[in-house]
Amino acid sequence: MRAFLEAATSRRLSRRKFLRVSAGAAGGLLVSIYVDLPAFAQEGTQAPQKVFPPDAFVHIRPDGQILITVNRLEFGQGVHTALPMILADEMDADWSQVVAELAPAADVYKDPIFGLQMVGGSGSIAHSFQQYRELGAKTRAMLVATAADRWHVTPDQCRTANSVVYGPGNQSARYAELADEAGRKPLPDKIRLKQPSEFRLIGKRVRRLDSRAKCNGSQKFGLDLDLPGMKIALIARPPVFGGRVRSFNDKDARGIAGVLDVFEIPLVKGSAVAVVADKFWTAKQARDRLTIDWDLSALERADTQELTAKYKALARTTGNVAVSNGDQKAMNAIASANRLVAEYEFPYLAHTPMEPLNTTIRFDGDKAEAWAGSQFQTFDQIAIAEVLGLKPEQVTFHTEMTGGGFGRRAVADSHVQREAAAIAKRLRGTPVKLVWAREDDVRGGYYRPMHVHRVEIGIGHDGMPAAWRHVIVGQSIVAGTPFGAMMIKNGVDGTAVEGVADTNYSIPNLHVSAHHPTVNVPVLWWRSVGNTHTAFVMETLIDELATRARIDPIAYRRKLLKADAGKVRRALDLMDEKSAAWRTKLPPGHAFGVSCHEAFDTGVACAVDVSIENKRPKIHRVTIALDSGIAVNPLTIESQFQAGVAFGMSQLVAKGAITLKDGRVEQRNFDGYAPPYMVDAPVAVDVHIVPSTDAPTGCGEPPVPVISPAVVNALAKLTGKRYRSLPLVTL
Amino acid sequence: MFATRSSVARSFLAMFVVFASWLVLASVKIANGKTTVTDARPADGLAEWQRVYSVLTYPRCINCHTATNYPQQGDDRHRHFANVIRGPEGKGVAGLNCASCHQEKNSDATGVPGGHNWHLAPLSMRWQDLNDQRLSSAAVCRALIDRSKNNGLDGPGLLKHHEEEPLVLWAWNPGRRPDGTTRSLPPLTHAQFVDATRRWVAAGTPCPKGP
Amino acid sequence: MTTYQLSVNGERREVDVDSTTPLLWVLREDLKMTGTKYGCGISACGACTVHLGGVATRSCVVPVSLIGDRPIVTIEGIGTDPVGRAVQDAWVEKDVVQCGYCQSGQIMTAVALLKDKPRPTEANIEESMGGNLCRCGTYVRIREAIVTASAQLK
Question: Number of C-alpha atoms within 13 angstroms, CB side, residue B147?
Answer without folding.
Answer: 7
